[in-house]
Structure formats: C-alpha cells, structure tokens
Amino acid sequence: MLRKLPGDYTREIVSTVPNALVFRPTVVNTPAIVTLVAIVSRAVAGLVRMVWRHPIACLAVATPPALAVLYGWLVAVLVVVSTMTTLVGWWLSHPASFTRWAGLRLRAWWRWMWTYRRHWQPVMVIAGLAAHIGGREYLPRLLKVTRTATADVVCVRMLSGQSVTEWQDRADNLAHGFACVQCRIKLDRPGRISLVFPHRDLLAAPILALSVPRETQVSAVAIGLHEDGSLYRLKLHGTHVLVAGATGAGKGSWLWSAIRGLLPARRAGLVEIWALDPKLMELSYGRDLFDHYAADPSDCADLLAAAVKVIQERAGRFAGVQRNHIPTVHDPFVLVVVDEVAFLTAYQADRKLKERITAALATLTTQGRAVGVGVLAALQDPRKEVLNIRNLFPDKIALRLDEPSQVDLVLGDGARDRGALADQISSSPLIGAGVGYVRLEASPEPVRVRAAYVSDSDIRAMVAEFAGVGEGR
C-alpha cells in the first residue's frame, strides 16, 4: 500500500511488524536525455581539466594516434622511436634536468590517472569523506597531483562543512587506500588541503657533519636536511629553542650542529656561546669552544645569573634607543646552551638552588631575545612537572618520544594530528637518531628534519681550529 508523506518522495511501506514500519524511497525516474547530457558534460569537463593540468603527458599520449590517422602508422612509429631515443639520451646525459622538466610531470600524470583518479570514489566513500544527500553522492574534488623527488602532493577541495581535522583523523585510511606508507594533511587555504604521500625517505640514512660555513651566520644556521633534501637552517637569534627527545634520539646532533654553524661568527666576535653541561658528558668534549662553561649545578646557577645581568644591562642601554638586537662586537649574540635542563630544574635536590635556576631560565626566556640572549635547551622528559616553563620556548623540536601524548606536550595541541609522528620515529641510531619535527612560532605546521651527526673527530677538528678564538672580549 502507498501512503503520502511530507517531502519530495512518495514512500512505500514494504513491511510491517508490530510497533514498526520500514519504508523504501520510490525511485525517481530521470529522463534519459538529461542523464546523457550530464554524463557527456562531466566527461568533457574532466578531459579539459586533464589537458590543462597535464599538457605534456596528454600530448605524449595523443600525438601517436593523431599521426597514424593523418600520415600513416609508419610515420607514427618513426616519431615515437625518435622521441623515445631523444628522451633516453636526455635522461642519460642530464638526469637532473630531465627529472625536473619531464620525468616528474609524467609520473604525476600517471599517478593522477592510474592511482588517484581511478580509486578516488571508493576510497572517499569507505574512508567516510563522501556525503549522500537527497539520493545524490558528493565527493571532495581532486584538483591536482604534483610529483616531487620524495612525495606525491595531491591538492583537494573539501566538501562544504568539512574540517581539516576530519581528514587528519582518516590519514591512515587514505594511506592504505592509495597504497602508500603514510599520508600527511596540510591546509593550503580555507577549503583546500594537500595530501602528501611520501614515496622516498631522504632522511633514513645518517647525515655527515655539514661543512663549517665560510661566512658568518648568526640568525639562522645550517643544521641538517629537510625532508625534500634541501638544506635546513634553524633560527637561533631572536628566539629560544627547546629540543626534546628520549635517550639516544639524537639531541646532541642538534646541539653540536648549532654550535658548529656559529663558530665563524664567534671567531668574528659576533657570537658568544655559554654552555651548561650538568651531565658532564655531551658538551665537555668540546669545552674549549665555549666562552663560558659550567657543569656543577651551583656553577650553572651562577652562569645563568650572569646571563640575566647581561639582559638587564642591555635593556637599560637599549631602552628608548632600539627595539631589536643587532649582533656587534660590543653587543654579541649570546647563546646559552643547556644539555639536559631537567638535571637543573627537576632532579636538583637543593630546593633553593632549583628555584634560583628556574627563575633565571624564566627570565632568560621571557626577556632575553629582544636584547640578543637566546637559550638552546635539550630535554629528555617533556612532562610539565619536569620543565614548567617549556611554553616560554617559542620554537620547539620533538625528536623520538615514547608516547603519542608527549608529541602535543612538546609541540603544542594538535601537532600530532598535523603529521608530527615523533612517537613513531625509529629507535635505531642509524635510522632515527637526529630525526625530529620542528614547530616554529611563526608556523603551526610541523616540519620533518634530520640534523647532521657531528662525530668526536669532527669536534676535535673544531677545537683545533676554533678553540680560544674570541675569548677575552
């Protein structure tokens, strides 16, 4: 039997049971001409988009059939063979330029057609990112696929009402659906995101110590390599940096790479490096490179107090004269390096000494960067009770951590959802040591970086060349 119900559909009662009714929507018959026009329109629009976004690949596919029709199959074969010979010769003679101008574009087109476009609809539906309203299916729009040396970057327009968090929660579904190891989601602008599917990890192998720069670098120094293989520079002047990671995660690589990059500026008198080494292990090996060095907790407290006096003296001179510090020989940039800050703030038995150290660190991190005093601190345990001033460090680096919750403790809420999987970094020294996620004050998006490994022989060479330089200023 039929019953009229409010709305656009006539619903048929298909079964009745006590206290329940089950309805089935009546099928709405669409004229065949309307369906045909819609299919043709979508096909033409998709073809135009494909040609617009992948002109080289489309030209390569369309040219042989066109030549065969116009001039015969022999001409088509000759053109194809000569073109392939030219491309192979280009690839063998200049592989870098071939990859940049042709190889990556062809691979991007192939991945767009064979992987993403072909599986887009089922993956979106199964992952729960599609919507069904009024009998129609709505899918996020696949806009563009770009191939880089390390990853596929898929540009997507989200459905109205979707959030980036929904996509981040389904990152594992997307990685599995497109047969990739990992998927990271990045917000490009409102309504548009990029899905990053890595296919090659350039950070899987250790990086040898970078060459000591010839020019003086104060603001940002070369630390290691970015995920795409480019050189990564870490800002030190005008900020404070906290490096957190479990034992063996490679904190020493970050500290020594920063020190190594500042040595030419220290020789020029533009930088002073003050070292606090309560563990007496990491920094003591190159103690002759530092303008001031302290290991005993009481000596560390005195050194921090001296840094506070530098801040106060400069603040008095800069007041009403300048707002930002410019490194000079008279007012050099002072970098205070603390190897294991928890030894001074949490594990210190002397309560008064601990309070004195904590107060000095709080003063340095709240007032130091405007007058040219920065702090680079390493931490093993990121819990708040271990270091309650960690939020005073604008820039943070998470190396390998033990638990997923520790990622947000170090980098801030939502960092792990944005792709900072520091808890999944390998514990193998060859694979994971020095690998970390950097979250800067100016950008909430975490960046994956691996710091170069500075060996004992590298440190000895640094001491031989730079020890004593700049002392007595």
Automatic annotation (TrEMBL):
ATP binds at residues 245-252. It comes from the Bacteria. The chain crosses the membrane at residues 32-52, 64-92. Keywords: ATP-binding, Membrane, Nucleotide-binding, Transmembrane, Transmembrane helix. Pfam families: FtsK_SpoIIIE. Residues 218-408 form the FtsK domain. PROSITE patterns: FTSK. This is FtsK/SpoIIIE domain-containing protein. It comes from Sphaerisporangium flaviroseum.
